[in-house]
Specification:
With about 240 residues, the chain is an alpha/beta fold. About 40% of the residues lie in helices and about 20% in strands. The longest helix has 17 residues. The structure holds zinc ion.
Length: about 240
């Protein structure tokens, strides 16, 4: 029974909460994977924030796996079709950058993101679309770019092979969502006891409300007490 912990939305725009999430993990002896956004919302290009990049590089040197997490993360300039609205309903507040992208458009953004990261000596080992939303074409584009390791809401993916894995996640956007996500996370303690691989997906916003922040710590503690943390690479 294993556990995979990751920090989503690693960007200088969310510098402080990202570091706090890291510290929560480090205090428990775990090294989470970091899902890095090359240019959050088109306004936070990593290359303009050398101090943050140095922090990410230092975490990678400590063993943190890096994964490319979209290019800008949001859907600005990308109109949704009706089928996209259905897929994303209730899942994300227009933060599903890859939701609408075909293979060529996905390849273009993945290529640009890889170039930016590699130019900064950051070496991603996989690709995770923002909000876990992408068309199969998007995952194919990542594969074409040499990143077969990926994941969606229900599974970790190694190319066409999918390993089912439930994921705990929270929302700190407002008291109602924060409390609701804490209740759901607590219910999943029983629900997922039998899952071979469980993922805990931490987001900077989780710390935005005390209810979700407390729940994150509680779930980390009790899952770590009964499961061994693993890395993406060890699963591949
Ligand atoms: Zn994200």
């Amino acid at each position: 029974m294993t556990l995979l912990v990751s920090i989503h939305d690693v960007t200088p725009a969310l510098d402080q909460p990202v570091r706090r999430l890291w510290d929560l993990c480090a205090a428990r002896g775990i090294t989470p994977a970091l899902l890095v956004i090359p240019d959050w919302h088109g306004a936070w290009a990593l290359d303009a924030h050398p101090e943050f990049v140095a922090w990410v590089r230092a975490r990678a040197a400590e063993g943190a796996e890096l994964l490319l997490h979209g290019y800008r993360h949001d859907e600005v300039g990308l109109p949704r079709a009706l089928r996209d609205e259905w897929r994303a309903w209730g899942r994300t507040d227009r933060e599903g950058e890859f939701l609408t992208l075909d293979r060529a458009a996905a390849a273009e953004r993945i290529g640009r993101g890889l170039e930016l990261l590699r130019g900064l000596d950051l070496a991603p080992i996989g690709f995770v679309p923002p909000a876990w939303l992408a068309r199969e074409d998007g995952f194919r584009a990542a594969r074409d770019a040499g990143l077969p390791l990926s994941e969606d809401e229900a599974a970790v993916r190694f190319g066409p092979r999918r390993v089912p894995s439930p994921a705990l996640r929270w929302s700190g956007r407002g008291a109602l969502r924060a409390r609701g996500s804490a209740v759901v996370a607590a219910a999943r303690w029983r629900l997922h006891q039998g899952a071979a691989l469980l993922r805990i997906a931490l987001h900077p916003g989780d710390l935005g409300h005390p209810a979700s922040a407390r729940s994150v710590e509680r779930e980390l503690d009790r899952w770590l007490a009964v499961r061994a943390p693993v890395t993406y690479s060890s699963l591949a």
